[in-house]
């Protein structure tokens, strides 16, 4: 069984060892997402609302191209940061580059892996949706069109699909750090490596999810308090109106809110990148230590390239 304590401690240990890198990753992520969001808002502001209801193939094509472009930029940014976290966890003695950041074949492979998983996920979702529709229709026909029976079978099938998705996510959870370790994309390597460790990995990931939820709650608790005090959460209240009032009456307070939001977002983003990336990379490292190379198929990850990059 995988060591849950070692997996959970992997991300937090990285925070202790590389606090400066954590802040750098969080700041880069916060700045990148803020820049992408601002650019999207600027582009959205140039759209003519009177033409929004017209069927304009050219406009739809441009809009789709812009969204794909933003998605690719976001994917590149997240791949660079994720690779840095994996690298800092797997090879802590390697301090080359600023905060372990670089752009090379490891990052390109991570981008390719994400695109592969996205296509597979879309295909699986399409097949699953069609299968669910077919089965519920067939059950309704066999039971005389009973909505209750069709709903029952749909619920059971949906729960089964959720369980299957959870199983696949756990079994393939270490596929990303294995890209850096083995220097190639290999879905079956993660599948082989996690065999027999499903429940221990699931337990570790549940603890990770609970810790993440607690982190989000504590980080944004001041904003919840601000919203409650100002009535932003009351019926008829809203955050945009509150920000407009602050800008008109207390511009310095608005700047303080924006600055605090950015700082907290950067900190939370950095910690989230570290804990999730560190946990997953630690899981891969623990499983590699416990697996026989011949069985796990990772003999190339236990030699000199595993101990040092």
TrEMBL record:
Keywords: Membrane, Transmembrane, Transmembrane helix. The keyword Iron does not apply. The chain crosses the membrane at residues 21-41, 68-90, 110-143, 149-181, 202-224, 254-281. This is Glycerophosphoryl diester phosphodiesterase membrane domain-containing protein.
């Amino acid at each position: 069984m995988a060591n849950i304590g070692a997996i959970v401690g992997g991300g937090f240990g990285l925070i202790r060892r590389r606090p400066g890198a954590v802040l750098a990753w969080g700041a880069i992520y916060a700045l990148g997402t803020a820049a992408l969001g601002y650019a999207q808002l600027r582009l959205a502001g140039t759209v003519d609302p009177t033409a929004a209801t017209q069927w304009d193939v050219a406009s739809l094509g441009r809009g789709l191209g812009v969204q794909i472009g933003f998605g690719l930029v976001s994917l590149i940014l997240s791949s660079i940061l994720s690779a840095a976290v994996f690298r800092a966890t797997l090879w802590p003695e390697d301090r080359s580059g600023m905060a372990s950041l670089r752009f090379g074949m490891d990052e390109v492979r991570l981008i390719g892996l994400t695109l592969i998983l996205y296509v597979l996920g879309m295909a699986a979702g399409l097949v699953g949706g069609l299968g669910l529709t077919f089965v519920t229709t067939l059950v309704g026909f066999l039971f005389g069109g009973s909505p209750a029976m069709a709903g029952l079978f749909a619920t059971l099938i949906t729960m089964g699909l959720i369980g299957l998705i959870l199983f696949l996510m756990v079994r393939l959870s270490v596929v990303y750090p294995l890209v850096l370790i083995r220097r190639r994309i290999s879905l079956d390597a993660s599948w082989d490596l996690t065999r027999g460790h499903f429940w221990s990995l699931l337990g570790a990931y549940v603890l990770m999810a609970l810790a993440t939820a607690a982190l989000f709650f504590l980080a944004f608790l001041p904003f919840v308090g601000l919203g409650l005090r100002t009535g932003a959460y009351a019926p008829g209240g809203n955050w945009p109106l509150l920000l407009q009032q602050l800008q008109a009456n207390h511009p310095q307070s608005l700047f303080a809110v924006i600055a605090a939001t950015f700082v907290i977002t950067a900190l939370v983003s950095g910690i989230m990148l570290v804990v999730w990336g560190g946990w997953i990379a630690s899981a891969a490292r623990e499983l590699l230590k416990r697996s026989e190379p011949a069985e796990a198929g990772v003999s190339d990850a236990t030699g000199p390239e595993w101990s040092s990059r």
